[in-house]
Specification:
Order of helices and strands: EEHEHEHEHHEHEHHEHEHEEH
CATH architecture of the largest domain: 3-Layer(aba) Sandwich
Number of domains: 2
Radius of gyration: 22 Å
Strand order of the largest sheet: 7-6-8-9-10-11
Shape: globular
Distance between the termini: 20 Å
Largest sheet: 6 strands, parallel
Number of helices: 11
Helix content: 25-40%
CATH superfamily of the largest domain: NAD(P)-binding Rossmann-like Domain
Number of strands: 11
Structural class: alpha/beta
Amino acid sequence: MRIAVLDDWQDTVRTLPCFSLVADHDVDIWTDHTTDVDVLADRLRETEVLALIRERTPIGAELLDRLPKLRMITQVAVFPHIDIEAATRRGVIVSSYLAAGGGPSYPPAELTWGLILAAARRIPQEAAALKAGVWQAQPMGDGLRGKTLGIFGYGAVGSVVAGYGAAFGMAVQVWGRPATLARAQADGYPAAASQRALFRDCDVVSLHLRLVPETAAIVTAADLAVMKPTALLVNAARAQLIEPGALETALRVGRPGMAAVDVFEQEPIGGLHPLVAMPNVVATPHIGFLERDSFNAMFSLIFDQILAYTAGAPINVHNPQALG
């Protein structure tokens, strides 16, 4: 089979142990990013199986109609970026493993905690200053013990971050859907009085919600305006959870005093994003879910779906009508 992998920005896929699963196939790996349909149609004109890394590239009807040899799209997780109807019409199956059970998700939780530590103690800024020959260049950082950590969304990631906060001696409060609040309280974490109270009372607020229509822009400018001038807002979930432009404005007026972000509205960001340019922001390029073990596990599933398809017994198919 002719397989194409898009958006392997760190050129990692070919180095994974699981890459041996597709050693007998022709694999094209693209390490840059483009959404230009003409460019993608040219790159993928011979592709039979398209492997995607999450939602990095939208696969719409215009592109699918220009890929006559394509027979399968394989990935993991949700797929709002794929036009399922167009894929079905073209006879292209979409195989995507959706994890069941909502177990802990450690890689993004670890990255979140790294962002919290980095922002609170000004680690990136001090490291950059030291490389430039300046000793202790930043205002003194803040400790975490005894402070209050707010978790907005107590799921696979938020529940792990809450545990990290407790281990560091922080008081933890939670806000979210009633079912998640019940789980948090069963784990010993109290619910905040309200969403607004979570932002008002906590020293660190970390967002861990899925992006669905109900949660888009759920964090408003009014929420940010009540945060302490010493508070930290952390977002390693989705940028669209925050009202557009609200975080930049809030940081300029000093409520909250700092932010740490791993996500942006459009990725990869073109040029210098306003948040990246701010001295009171620690920013990383959406690496929360990216570490070698989990990346290898993800591509093992992606490649298993390819092997099942080539064996004539496709798995995790979300549009079985395309098999007709």
